[in-house]
């Protein structure tokens, strides 16, 4: 007994089958999120036409894909957007005011909020 496995690509937009060689896998990014969509040729043409004016007006960014932009200032390199010095001041203040805070790592939002309220 023989078995034949058939792989069929489906257009992500309209759910119709994509004939071999007549579709496109389109990768794009929007607001920091990467996307991929498989489209039949007609829908790929519609996609191209829809984004064309935006692509023509945009500045092309070269470099590694998915790489995040670096912080504008080395002082604001933490996830909280605060400098290392400010984070250390928060740790010092928290320790003196009865909060448990590790010498390194993330500081709880409630501690940062309390620090902000006190200053």
From TrEMBL:
InterPro entries: E3-bd_dom_sf (IPR036625), Lsr2-like_dimerization (IPR042261), Lsr2_dim_dom (IPR024412), Lsr2_DNA-bd (IPR055370). It comes from the Bacteria. Residues 61-87 are annotated as: Disordered. Keywords: DNA-binding. Residues 83-118 form the Lsr2 DNA-binding domain. Residues 1-61 form the Lsr2 dimerization domain. It holds the Pfam family Lsr2_DNA-bd. The keyword Nuclease does not apply. Residues 69-81 have a biased composition (Low complexity). One of its GO terms (molecular function) is acyltransferase activity. This is Lsr2 family protein. The lineage of its organism: Bacteria, Bacillati, Actinomycetota, Actinomycetes, Mycobacteriales.
């Amino acid at each position: 007994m023989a078995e034949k496995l058939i792989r069929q690509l489906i257009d992500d937009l309209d759910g119709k089958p994509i004939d071999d060689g007549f579709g496109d896998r389109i990768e794009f990014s929007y607001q920091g999120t990467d996307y991929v969509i498989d489209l039949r040729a007609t829908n790929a043409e519609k996609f191209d036409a829809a984004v064309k004016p935006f692509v023509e007006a945009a500045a092309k960014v070269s470099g590694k894909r998915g790489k995040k932009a670096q912080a504008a200032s080395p002082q604001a390199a933490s996830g909280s957007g605060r400098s290392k010095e400010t984070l250390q001041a928060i740790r010092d203040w928290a320790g003196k005011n009865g909060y448990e805070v590790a010498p390194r790592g993330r500081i709880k939002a409630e501690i940062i909020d309390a620090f902000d309220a006190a200053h």
